[in-house]
Amino acid sequence: MFQDFIIHINNGATLAELSDELKKVVAAVRQTGKAGSLTLAINVSLAAKGSDRVLMVKSEVKSKAPQPDRGVTVFYATDDNLLVRNDPQQLPLPLRVVPVDAPRELREVNLNG
């Protein structure tokens, strides 16, 4: 009986939505290795007071696909409470570009003796 009932909710739109959401949850579970869930809520109410023969059925589909872990970024706080990527307490290294006149010849080294 339930399978016949669920096919008719919203002319099949709820069943289609459930199928689509289930695929998304399964894909995310396979990708992340974390658990997910799919929930169908069915609310039933009387269409009119005093009549118990006509009912209104409302459905709600909720899915919770697991999310992949997000990376973190390291920042440093300045005295003015700004976030910067380089440590303001560390002195900069005196780097410079070293010019190369000509490419050097590569040699093969025999390590076996």
Radius of gyration from the alpha-carbon trace, in angstroms = 32 Å
Number of strands: 4
Spell the H/E element sequence. Answer: HHEEEE
Shape: elongated
Oligomer: single chain
Percent of residues in helices comes to 10-25%
Helix count, DSSP H or I runs of 4 or more residues: 2
In whole angstroms, how far apart are the ends? 82 Å
**What is the residue-averaged pLDDT?**
92
What share of residues are in beta strands? 15-25%
Main sheet record:
2 strands, antiparallel
Sheet with most strands: strand arrangement: 1-2
Task: Throw out a few tags for this protein.
2 helices; two-stranded antiparallel sheet; elongated; alpha+beta; 113 residues
Describe the structure.
The chain has a domain at 2-64. The model has no long low-confidence stretch (mean pLDDT 92). Strand 3 (76-77) and strand 4 (83-84) form a beta hairpin. The protein is of the alpha+beta class and 113 residues long. The chain has helices at 2-8, 13-32, and strands at residues 37-46, 55-64, 76-77, 83-84.
